[in-house]
Queue: 3 jobs
Job 1
Amino acid sequence: MQNSKIAGIGFYVPERVVTNKELEELMDTTDEWIRERTGIEERRYAKKHEETTATMGVEAAKIAIERAGITAQDIDFIIFATLSPDYYFPGSGVILQREMGMENVGALDVRYQCTGFIYALSVADQFVKSGMYKNVLVVGAEFHSCGLDFTKRGRNVSVIFGDGAGAAVLQPTQEEGKGILTTHLHSDGKFAEELAYYNPGCHGGKFLKDDKKPHFGEEPEFGGLFMTKEMVEHGEIYPTMNGRYVFKHAVEKFPAVIKEACAATGYKVDDIDMLIPHQANLRISQLVQLNLGIENERVYNNIQKYGNTTAASIPIALCEAWEKGLIKEGDLVCLAAFGSGFTWASALIRW
């Protein structure tokens, strides 16, 4: 069976840089507090009413397609990973397809947040390996800044996230031992509510602990669960995160899924030339690095200047590391992520 390879990669981040100092003016936080706990110094915010998740994905995709030496019309299939789609439905994949003038190709949206890009990459890998598609476009994009709570109530979450997009084009390769060697995907829904965006939704509070029960207000006999005025007034339309809980599980699952990828291919952690972890928190990355005994030169982090861009973080970091010459032909590259779900995943690639 043929392997798939990343034939082209690109990323896009908005022009507007938002520093920690700027956030100090909006909520009860400090630059020192944010840096100490997350490592973040600044992030990018998209232009409201001008940019969207899909338009940022388009910009990243244009670069990836050009670097792959093809045109948009050569793309056979689109896989779009995001937690912040342009619309509740349809997904952002079809918006990107329309904006890029692609003719009737299929589009699949992946909603696995921080692990979204690796999940999407794994699906694309299977499509290419099976021979079903020859040029698969994989996109990870997020527009977080339009849905964050910029008050004291939401400060622990809102300071973490930024906007941006990354994309890759997967093609078949006949070179022995080249391309995507293995991918590993996991989930544990027992912890779904520890990192989640509860509303809008149809759960009606069914899975939430009593202290998190939403405010429904006067409900009609039909409808009324999706979104109510009371939910908005009580700030129940923003993401919620049990930070310590997420941190604890992340530092366990990251090393485990990286070792799993190595074991499946007969490599050791010492063989990895570059590790690209999901940019969730610099402290998580540092602990994972320490656990695995990987030197600084073999790990790429850029959360300091982009924040956590969720599904976009791995392709942005991967592309930036490659552009800087830190990833070269023949290098063994490992991608790893942990996030909402809980889900965790890894991919091992011979560049």
Job 2
Amino acid sequence: MKKKVYHHEMTFSDFKEGGFNKAIIGVGSAENHGFHLPFGSDTLVSHALAMEVASRVDGMMVLPPVNYGMSRHYDNFQFTLSLEFETITAVLRDVLTSTIRQGITRIIIINGHDGNIAPIEMATRSIKNAHPHVFLASLDAWWEKMGELLPPETFEVWGGLGHAGEGESSIVHYLYPQFTRMENARGVVPELPEGPQIKWRFNELTPYGATGDPTKASKEKGKKMFEVLVDYVVSFVRSMEEKGWNYGLSAR
């Protein structure tokens, strides 16, 4: 029988028998993803990554994903739902605190949404200061990491980047083809000047709710992305286990 790793599917007996000593959680959003991807794309991908990682790592529980994010910069496009910056930070802090209180002190975060990066940083720094013994790590932007892990020629436009662009459309279409409408894919590579990062609202960049070129997406690219990202996180966790979860001065 396939082992249970997802919190929502476990009984107390399953948890005790599973020997869980670490946890992983996906953090996503509820927002427009162009004309072709589901509103829950960020959550769907981050949770799928978390589930696959946990299936390969002994003693890792998958916590329920955070389905809402800080998405105010996308809310000109329907049907975007957003938490305020302070709210998502507080939600993350409370979830982490609850997990630690249950005896899990090694936690990995898989983030699927750009607007969550700052709240995750605030929440995890707060938790680490309050609980110095806890191990926390966050994959803040898988869409950037996959560009480092895959050969440059994998993608055709803008390195695969973009909100609902080539890369994200590929991985969502691979994982959840039943939720996609790829025939409606539209996108644009925004013209952004070199220099300090501009703090944009998304309707300043695209009329489609998507950037990059989702018409170049494919399930084959999505499969490569998913596999390389899972391997990356699994390798990280196994490496930390071999080191006794020590790093910095404690690793000497």
Job 3
Amino acid sequence: MKIQHAAILIAIAAIASYLAFNASRPSAPSCKDGVLNQGETGIDCGGPCGPCVVSDAGCGGLANASARSKCYFTTATNTVNSTLCDLIELQPFKDDCFKAVAKLAGESVLCARVEDGLGKDECLRDVAIETLNKETCSGIADIPQKDSCYYRIASDKKDLATCRLIASQASMNTCLALVNKSSIYCDEITDQNSKDWCYTKVAALNPDAKTCASVRATPTKDQCYKTVAAKKINFDLCTLIQNKTTQSECLTDVEIARKQMEELQKQLPNATISPT
């Protein structure tokens, strides 16, 4: 009897383990999972699923095209249903509708429905950034938009390879500098204004007065010292600022940062807290 009892307990434990394992496994995408995925144009409809049932939610009964377009746009974005965008009569509203739903759904294929060329590029950029998919950036025709797309994804993912896809020399080196938190990449930039901007961005990310010293334009250098002084809670750095107004602002910012640090130390007496 004891052996039978033990066997039953083992069987029950095995069944419970199996059920727990399968409950924790993510279910495969389907047309009944309540999620917009697998190329669907609406939740569980369109694409590989059955056609979406289009309900105009009363929009069709509105008096004029502008009101109807706004109504369809609102309903389409609230329900993440691109089929409603097709009912919009005014093209600018229709383009905006597909752009908005594409971003919400993370579906770059919807960007092809945007007729305005610049709007299509914006749509692809927004979807790429939302999904952090650099491959989507490659479909953008406008070079500055494409660079902006790569730059944002590279910054968010800390991905040097994506930085190197940027066409603009200044933007590419700034991207590399920020991902590496190193100003040596700024040195490679030929345009002085872009180089100065790169130094200030790196100094804000990795506070170092030496980086600010590399900035050529005095107003930009002053702002750089101001930022670093506050982050390091270093009043002495404010004395390096040429503009008296900016210098005064620097002293105020450092004092505010000092008080915030003191307050934080009071709240966390056992923690070791130091400026950036």
